[in-house]
Specification:
single chain, Nucleotide-diphossugar_trans, 259 residues, two-stranded parallel ribbon, DPM1-like, Spore Coat Polysaccharide Biosynthesis Protein SpsA, Chain A, transferase, alpha/beta, seven-stranded mixed sheet, glycosyltransferase
């Protein structure tokens, strides 16, 4: 059975990376489609995507947003678009090649062939598989996951990972309008919510390589959101039990088919 697969990549000033990333994903076996969500990049990222759409008219999609609105809201926009347009497997991925496009196939197979609902490309499931990061950032990332597990009980070694494959049932089962965070806490909140709703989660080991082109979007504000957001998530889970979204797709503010 052929599954529809959509890779969502948010972009802001990724002109140095996005043409090559599009080429790599389009060359993969399995007819992966791409949805680029660009936050009005001043460097012309969206224009570069448009110039390539003629080469992949049925597989390369673009949503342009009016300003820099945050990682989490970009993914929520993409998730709603994917659900509306009937995709079976929906992926999150960075534009900067820190995630190897070839690993999309491994994440897909873990969901489609092994029966998991959410598969995470994990930097820490088999040690510390990070290349070219300063040791301070490696430690911060690693111990952030330790902190998340200590506070929430979430049984995942790479809680902040942004390389994932969802079966559509996960995204349909989560009330996406109730997802609160927009930075790295968004990644934690999505995993925590899926776990609380009883979905089957697997971590797939990957090698994470720091970007060589463009600039990182990490900031102290994003890190603070994650630290305090984890506590908020734990408190919320005690007083407000997680329940599957019973009105799947009903009342969602869904974007129209992209250009």
């Amino acid at each position: 059975m052929k599954h529809q697969k959509l890779v969502i990549i948010p972009t802001y000033n990724e002109i140095e990376n996005i043409p090559a990333m599009i080429s790599k994903v389009m060359d993969l076996e399995g007819d992966f489609e791409l949805l680029i969500i660009d936050d009005q990049s001043p460097d012309g990222t969206a224009e570069a995507v448009k110039s390539l759409q003629a080469s992949f008219p049925e597989r390369l999609h673009l949503i342009e947003r009016k300003g820099k609105l945050g990682l989490g809201t970009a993914y929520i926009t993409g998730f709603k678009w994917a659900l509306k347009n009937g995709y079976d497997y929906i992926f999150e991925m960075d534009a900067d090649f820190s995630h190897n496009p070839k690993d999309l196939i491994r994440l897909y197979e873990a969901c489609a062939e092994q029966g998991f609902d959410l598969c995470i490309g994990s930097r820490y499931i088999t040690g510390v598989n990070v290349v070219n990061w300063p040791i301070g950032r490696v430690l911060m990332s690693y111990f952030a996951s330790v902190y998340v597990k200590f506070i929430t009980g979430l049984p995942i070694k790479d809680a902040t990972a942004g390389f994932k494959c969802y079966h559509r049932s996960v995204l349909a089962g989560i009330n996406l309008d109730e997802i609160r965070f927009i930075g790295y806490a968004f990644q934690i909140e999505m995993k925590f919510t899926a776990w609380k709703l009883g979905f089957k989660i697997k971590e797939v080991p990957i090698i994470f390589t720091d970007r060589t082109k463009g600039t990182s979007k990490m900031s102290s504000g994003i890190f603070q959101e994650a630290v305090f957001g984890v506590i908020w998530m734990k408190i919320k889970s005690i007083f407000s039990p997680y329940r599957l979204n019973q009105n799947v797709l009903t009342g969602l503010d869904l974007p129209e088919k992209s250009q």
